[in-house]
Design brief:
Largest sheet: none
Distance between the termini: 20 Å
Number of domains: 1
Shape: globular
Number of helices: 10
Number of strands: 0
Oligomer: single chain
Order of helices and strands: HHHHHHHHHH
Length: 239
């Protein structure tokens, strides 16, 4: 796998799609406005910060990759990319990495914003950054897979919202999963964002609700690899 080929695709994607309406509205504006709404309502938002960062990562990554893939599928420019001397794996890796880069930028902006309203200082900034990187990689790979698996590209954003919006409530991002009935934990455990929220909660506040930090870390890595493989298969089916 050529690093130069992957990097060339990343640079092209950032230049062409960073300022697309879908990337800006759902990827940047929505997470920041959502965070500001909770800051204005509660002021002291320590218990909400892990969820707000996870929401920023989820919407930042998936909105960016969906905008680029929808655009390329509708204009049929994916074929031209695949005619170049690049493999399916290189294309998917570049798509995932560029989405993760955009999502990480959104997450860091959110972190800087919300940290000013925290009553307690961040327990471990390096651990927070590690979980942000892993979360953005996993969510970006999920976004790439959904964007390629939906047969009609026009419906991609609809399906993404059907997946993303419920995850805000089934992951413990807004309210702790320990407040819900025990059966609801099963829903939380199959929600990808749960592992991001609990991992970030540990890095920020030195405690977790349901999932130990090491298990959250391993789950995010596994999700990243799984959705990468599924995305490669979906791309091969399309082209």
């Amino acid at each position: 796998m050529s690093n130069m080929k992957v990097w060339a695709i990343i640079v092209k994607e950032l230049r062409e799609y960073m300022l697309k309406p879908g990337s800006i509205s759902w990827g940047l504006v929505f997470p920041l406005v959502f965070s500001l709404a909770f800051i204005a309502r509660f002021g002291d938002i320590d218990h909400l910060v892990p969820g707000l960062l996870s929401i920023s990562a989820l919407f930042g990554t998936t909105s960016f990759v969906a905008s680029s893939i929808i655009f390329e599928r509708r204009l049929r420019t994916f074929e031209r990319l695949l005619l170049a001397p690049v493999s399916y794996g290189e294309v998917i890796l570049a798509k995932v990495l560029v989405g993760a880069i955009f999502g990480l930028l959104v997450s860091l902006v959110t972190l800087v914003l919300v940290s000013h309203f925290m009553a307690y200082s961040i327990w471990s900034l390096p651990l927070v950054l590690l979980y942000l990187v892993l979360s953005n990689l996993a969510f970006s790979a999920l976004g790439v897979y959904i964007s390629l698996a939906i047969s009609n590209p026009i419906n991609v954003m609809t399906w993404l919202n059907l997946i993303r919006l419920p995850m805000m409530f089934t992951s413990g991002a807004i309210a702790s999963l320990t407040l819900f009935p025990r059966w609801f934990l099963i829903v939380g455990l199959i929600t990808p964002m749960t592992y991001s929220v609990d991992g970030l909660r540990y890095g920020l506040l030195y405690y977790y609700d349901v999932i130990p930090p090491l298990e959250s870390m391993l789950a995010l890595v596994m999700m990243f690899l799984l959705f990468m493989l599924l995305s490669i298969r979906a791309l091969k089916k399309l082209y």
